[in-house]
């Protein structure tokens, strides 16, 4: 049973659906705070060794301030200040100290070598993107311990990957609402564990498992939003939720400036998740997806939720005047009173042909779009080392990509815009690779921003496209697999940092080649613009690539191809149906009264009206 046919009988995309859409978009703001806060928690601030007077000759041990730093810290290669002035802090070595002979000779003492830091490090104030103290300065994760930062970032991405893979299948078994509540409770526990971590190992473990729970939250919310919408509103609600994510990313630096300490920041990020427990206490804020209940034949629960939705939209589904066309009676006639529910697993999806092909292609494009973002970000860092400038440019590119998708995807189709975005990503990457030595610095910056914009459009549209071609019964597992490949692509950034960006050029070449290859793969995808979501595996197998050349010999009914056909709007039709039912209910036909004689029997003559 096609749920998109049921929605108009529930009052269309009415006030109840709009309220549910807003309630399902608000948590994206909190998810953005939690996801992007990792950037600030693990940002390495400027630092250098604390001076050790024991390494200085006796004549210099009473120095302090800038003179002490000048004698204690060696300069990096190519670094140095003007003659007679102290060098800038960035010119000092971050991990070494000068060592002097104990008996200083006549004249200015000269060092006879360098040693590793002996008394820890001195970090720049507010060097962690606005934080006075983060995990790097908390546990001295610099110099010989620098490898722990990329390890923490990779483990966090692994947590999100595992969460998408495991909890994606859980959404198909337990439902969207149950997975959301489970992930929310686990997420709160893990966030509290991160806040009270006493060492680096404890932080990594809790942070990784918080990524698992947050992935379940994001995935269940994404699917629930999509499944409550009719075809004309799916893209709008998805882009609206994406704007909350970008808004949270833009607001986070201000929140960091207010908190200043990483534990306070983590506590502020955790507190709003506790408020989301209202979704557990008030099921009307986040009901189970009736589309999923109907697809898995859980009819009793589905009927109850449909009645609530219809009542919220001002439609009475139990009106006896419309028993013949009532969707509840239609469900009874199709499924019967006692219907055995049917749940599906990842194994059922793997056995399919067309569904599996679509998933693999869209997972490939998601992996490319996520991984190649690091290549463009490195070009931004080379242009300007300012952390906040690069951060806001990246967030701005994501916001522009959402606007681009909102105004183009419904007009030109999913496949066409995905193909265009992939071509732009590949061309920007190839131009940066081939002409980096000959391009003006401003043009390189433009290509990097354009590449970030198109790569984010590829990722966002690939996930949205996949949600429209994967059937409802396995949508959680399929989308979880695609989002997991996106996290694997994002993990390439900290892996490059772990190797000090050795092999970065080769990585850029690989992703650029993959982007060119994906152009051919996208041509094998179907088009899902304004089509009903597939419900069963059989419906999903029908999502095939349209023919390149449509036949011109088809019989065409003139009325179906009139000039007014393009103005058809399913939402207006649903409103017309609802208004007509209300009007007919108010104008009850006159019922003739049959006169009754004294004996209580009806007279046989016919009454006239």
UniProtKB/TrEMBL annotation:
The keyword Membrane applies. It is a multi-pass membrane protein. The chain crosses the membrane at residues 20-41, 179-198, 204-223, 235-256, 262-282, 359-383, 389-409, 416-439, 445-466, 473-492, 504-525. Residues 590-609 are annotated as: Disordered. GO terms for cellular component: membrane. Keywords: Membrane, Transmembrane, Transmembrane helix. Residues 97-530 form the Major facilitator superfamily (MFS) profile domain. InterPro entries: MFS_dom, MFS_sugar_transport-like, MFS_trans_sf. One of its GO terms (molecular function) is transmembrane transporter activity. The keyword Transport does not apply. This is Major facilitator superfamily (MFS) profile domain-containing protein. It comes from Scyliorhinus torazame (Cloudy catshark).
